[in-house]
């Protein structure tokens, strides 16, 4: 059964080449909007060291600048898709674009790390409105035989924006300030708003939900918050501490209750029938694991380049160019290959290459040269490209047509949840390793034990970001940097194991069975 969509009064076929409703102009408009969301997923990573120094933020605070955004985006994506079905995708898209730009401005004016985190969460909520609405608008604008091409280009914009984030962030942080990383969204949001008002036609589902699964939203949001918060706080609380166990246990319980509720809810947030498809389920988990390794790994690389190697932000971005460039070039090549032979071989091969890249990056040390770093960055970009492109084919293509919108939200949510969990879990792994390694390295360099009390804690927190105290002997700085590198190495080994598991899941994927686009009734 194909899913029907209806258009508002503006949706009559455009005559005389008028702009409103033009398919390719619609694609351009939604691409501008989602570009902000994708760019912010990685552009902030390069600004994190500057934010930490300027606002005296702790490592866990800085993790929340990334995790809070990704988590809000992930939890709200599917709900946002239902909002678009109910109130119209054009209105939802425009609200998302305006809200995203406004919260970006608020972050730039924030005077404390707490305010930055608060507005980043709001930014993630508005960003979640943009992505499912964009997909819904494309489905209404393009005929079935052109829809896959449009979605492929749309996905390429997301991939290119994600990859370009470190370069853009480096240029802005070095030549302007870290606030400009957020201010840049203001003109982009204005362009998206103007284009949206001039070009977009509204699209809504003929069988739009009349109510929202509020209990499901609360349960899923609460579960993800408890899970990520518990993981981030575990290194300071202790993994066996009652508070840690309460949060992690509460997350498991909330997820279990959520699954049961989805079975009986009249309008479930995530219909469990979606997961009857083995390829779809494998593809969803694959996206979680891929993003876990990618976002978690890139979080540490920026600190490694800037704080250990002493690079300026733009130099750090340039050093990541082999990875970002390969992702931009590799995405269309991967799309062509997947179209010819299906997604399974490219996805499995891509995750194997990503595993090798992660293992290679685990061997980086304080003195690693540009050539060695570039090799592993290039290999990672080459490996990630077919996975990012193939995931939409596997998840959306294997969903029933009447649930394809929800599946699209699920695909995006899986990537954002994986990124949030990767940052949190690998951050906890690294913090534990650095905290254990620093005392011995400090004593070997100074002949004195690591100070206790608040001074010692400050030194440990600095080491977790690769920051040595100012005006200290080179041996002390080396102790801090080597402690950071040892922690980063362990984190990348864990990321490699996760990437290898994702490669195994790739064996269960196959080409989507529902490739035709939706019927459009005008």
TrEMBL record:
Gene Ontology cellular component terms for the protein in this record: plasma membrane
Q: Which GO terms describe its biological process?
A: response to antibiotic
- Which residue numbers delimit the Major facilitator superfamily (MFS) profile domain? 26-514
SUPFAM superfamilies associated with the record = MFS general substrate transporter
Where is this chain primarily localised? membrane
Sequence intervals crossing the membrane:
24-47, 62-80, 92-111, 117-138, 150-169, 181-200, 212-232, 244-261, 282-305, 317-338, 345-364, 376-401, 413-432, 484-508
Q: Which InterPro entries match?
A: EmrB-like, MFS, MFS_dom, MFS_trans_sf
Membrane protein topology class? Multi-pass membrane protein
Alphabetically list the UniProt keywords: Antibiotic resistance, Cell membrane, Membrane, Transmembrane, Transmembrane helix, Transport
GO molecular function (one): transmembrane transporter activity
Q: Where in the cell is it found?
A: Cell membrane
* Matches recorded under PROSITE patterns: MFS
**PANTHER family documented for this protein:** EXPORT PROTEIN (PTHR42718:SF42), MAJOR FACILITATOR SUPERFAMILY MULTIDRUG TRANSPORTER MFSC (PTHR42718)
What protein name applies here? EmrB/QacA subfamily drug resistance transporter
This chain's source organism reads: Kitasatospora cineracea
């Amino acid at each position: 059964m194909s899913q029907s969509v209806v258009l508002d009064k503006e949706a009559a076929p455009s005559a005389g080449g008028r702009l409103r409703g033009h398919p390719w102009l619609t694609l351009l408009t939604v691409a501008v909007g989602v570009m902000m969301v994708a760019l912010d997923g990685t552009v902030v990573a390069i600004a994190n060291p500057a934010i930490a120094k300027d606002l005296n933020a702790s490592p866990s605070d800085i993790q929340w600048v990334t995790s809070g955004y990704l988590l809000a985006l992930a939890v709200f994506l599917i709900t946002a898709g239902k909002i678009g079905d109910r109130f119209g995708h054009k209105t939802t898209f425009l609200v998302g674009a305006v809200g995203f730009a406004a919260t970006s401005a608020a972050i730039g004016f924030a005077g404390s790390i707490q305010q930055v985190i608060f507005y980043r969460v709001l930014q993630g909520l508005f960003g979640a409105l943009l992505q499912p609405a964009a997909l819904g608008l494309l489905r209404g604008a393009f005929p079935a035989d052109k829809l896959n091409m449009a979605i492929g280009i749309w996905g390429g914009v997301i991939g290119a924006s994600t990859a370009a984030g470190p370069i853009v962030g480096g240029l802005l942080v070095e030549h302007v300030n870290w606030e400009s990383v957020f201010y840049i969204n203001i003109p982009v949001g204005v362009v998206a708003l103007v284009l949206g008002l001039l070009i977009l036609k509204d699209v809504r589902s003929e069988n739009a939900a009349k109510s929202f699964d509020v209990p499901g939203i609360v349960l899923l949001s609460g579960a993800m918050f408890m899970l990520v918060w518990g993981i981030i706080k575990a290194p300071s609380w202790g993994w066996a501490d009652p508070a840690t166990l309460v949060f992690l246990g509460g997350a498991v319980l909330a997820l279990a209750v959520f699954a049961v509720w989805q079975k009986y809810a009249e309008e479930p947030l995530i219909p469990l029938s979606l997961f009857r498809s083995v390829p779809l389920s494998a593809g969803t988990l694959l996206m979680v694991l891929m993003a876990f390794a990618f976002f978690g790994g890139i979080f540490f690389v920026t600190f490694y380049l800037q704080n250990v190697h002493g690079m300026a932000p733009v130099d750090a971005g340039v050093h990541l160019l082999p990875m970002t460039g390969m992702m931009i070039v590799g995405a269309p090549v991967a799309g062509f290959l997947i179209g010819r032979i299906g997604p399974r071989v490219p996805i499995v091969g891509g995750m194997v290459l990503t595993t090798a890249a992660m293992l290679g990056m685990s061997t980086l040390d304080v003195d690693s040269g540009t050539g060695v770093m570039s090799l592993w960055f290039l290999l990672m970009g080459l490996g990630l490209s077919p996975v990012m492109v193939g995931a939409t084919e596997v998840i959306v293509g294997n969903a029933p047509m009447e649930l394809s919108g929800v599946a699209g939200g699920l695909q995006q949510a899986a990537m954002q949840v994986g990124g949030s969990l990767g940052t949190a879990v690998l951050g906890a792994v690294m913090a534990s390793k650095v905290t254990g390694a620093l005392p011995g390295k400090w004593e070997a360099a100074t002949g004195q034990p690591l100070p206790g009390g608040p001074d010692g804690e400050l030194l440990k927190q600095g080491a977790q970001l690769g920051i040595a105290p100012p005006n200290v002997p080179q041996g002390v700085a080396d102790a801090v940097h080597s402690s950071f590198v040892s922690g980063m190495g362990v984190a990348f080994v864990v990321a490699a194991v996760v990437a290898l598991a994702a490669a195994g899941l790739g064996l269960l994927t196959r080409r989507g069975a529902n490739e035709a686009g939706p019927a459009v009734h005008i």
